């Protein structure tokens, strides 16, 4: 994996910087930036494209300060972001019915060592599986095959339809995720595909990124030192304000039928830029597929 910060970079100081940021988010779902002085500038940037969404751990202004306050040997469930341990790429808010669409992370203090950002494009993972392992993908789109969070969390699937033929990825790989036996059996293959498509970059003070949370997973490597990051979540402003629609999820190549469920309970969070596209024939096939829900192991 090579450092790919420049691959997704947008110069916010340019005259068309904000428009370029919106275009990059709408088309690719990920943008990197620099020269953001601190949390106030980060908030201003997020507010220019989205309404800030509060998190369980955020301050009143919506900023969550991520630093290693959890003892490495005794990290509480759901608080790995506040440790120095590796954070496996995941969906932000995976246990919520509707995870936030945008996630911003800004570096305030870099790690002494390690702490590289790792991101995975869910669309690339989906398309790879569709082309090379459709039998694996069929399990990963099966409704009610993955439980994220506790008993009051979200019961869904790794890939879920979001309307208009689009899909989103919802994933985490820790003690807050449980999978059906069929998904557990194909999980090694999924992790292998994810690893092959992981891109990595480092960020220094004033550098950061914004990603579209229905398409990209994000995490970091283990680190040493007093690394401090600001996290801000947001819901994009409407298209008439941004000039483009920035929706939740991605448009896959196809949606294979599930052999083990009666049909998906599609989310109403249809990406606005996909509303004019009608590639949902395969999704309809998934709805029409008969069968019983998967049985869960103890």
Quickly list its features.
298 residues; alpha+beta; Double-stranded beta-helix; 6-stranded antiparallel sheet; 4-stranded antiparallel sheet; 7 helices; 25% strand; disordered C terminus
Write the topology of this structure:
Blueprint: H1 17-28, E1 30-33, H2 39-49, E2 50-53, E3 64-67, E4 87-90, E5 102-109, E6 113-114, E7 117-121, H3 122-132, H4 134-140, E8 146-148, E9 154-156, E10 159-163, E11 166-169, E12 177-179, H5 181-196, E13 198-201, E14 208-212, E15 216-220, E16 223-224, E17 228-236, H6 239-242, H7 281-288
Antiparallel strand pairs: 1-14, 2-17, 3-17, 4-15, 5-14, 5-17, 6-16, 7-13, 7-15, 8-9, 8-12, 10-11
Summarize the model shown:
The protein has helices at 17-28, 39-49, 122-132, 134-140, 181-196, 239-242, 281-288, and strands spanning 30-33, 50-53, 64-67, 87-90, 102-109, 113-114, 117-121, 146-148, 154-156, 159-163, 166-169, 177-179, 198-201, 208-212, 216-220, 223-224, 228-236. The chain contains seven helices and 17 strands.
């Amino acid at each position: 994996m090579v450092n790919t910060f420049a691959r997704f970079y947008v110069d916010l100081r340019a005259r068309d910087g904000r428009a370029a940021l919106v275009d990059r988010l709408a088309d690719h779902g990920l943008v990197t930036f620099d020269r953001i002085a601190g949390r106030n500038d980060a908030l201003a940037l997020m507010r220019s494209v989205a309404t800030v969404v509060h998190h369980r751990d955020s301050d009143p202004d919506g900023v969550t300060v991520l630093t290693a306050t959890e003892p490495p040997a005794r990290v509480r469930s759901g608080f790995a972001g506040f440790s120095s341990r590796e954070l496996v790429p995941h969906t932000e808010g995976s246990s919520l019915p509707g995870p936030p669409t945008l996630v911003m992370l800004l570096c305030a203090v870099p790690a002494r060592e390690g702490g590289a950002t790792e991101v995975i494009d869910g669309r690339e993972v989906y398309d790879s599986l569709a082309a090379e392992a459709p039998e694996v993908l069929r399990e990963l789109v099966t409704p009610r095959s993955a439980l994220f969070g506790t008993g009051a969390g979200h019961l869904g699937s790794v890939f879920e339809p979001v309307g208009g033929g689009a899909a989103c990825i919802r994933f985490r790989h820790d003690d807050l995720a449980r999978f059906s036996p069929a998904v557990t059996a194909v999980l090694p293959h999924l992790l292998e595909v994810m690893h092959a498509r992981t891109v990595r970059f480092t960020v220094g003070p004033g550098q950061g990124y914004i990603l579209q949370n229905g398409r990209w997973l994000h995490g970091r490597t283990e680190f040493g030192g007093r690394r401090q990051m600001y996290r801000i979540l947001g819901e994009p402003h409407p298209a008439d304000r941004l000039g483009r629609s920035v929706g939740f999820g991605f448009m896959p190549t196809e949606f294979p039928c599930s052999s083990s469920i009666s049909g998906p309970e599609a989310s109403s969070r249809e990406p606005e830029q996909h509303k004019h596209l009608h590639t949902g024939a395969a999704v309809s096939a998934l709805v029409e597929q008969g069968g019983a829900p998967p049985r869960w192991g103890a």
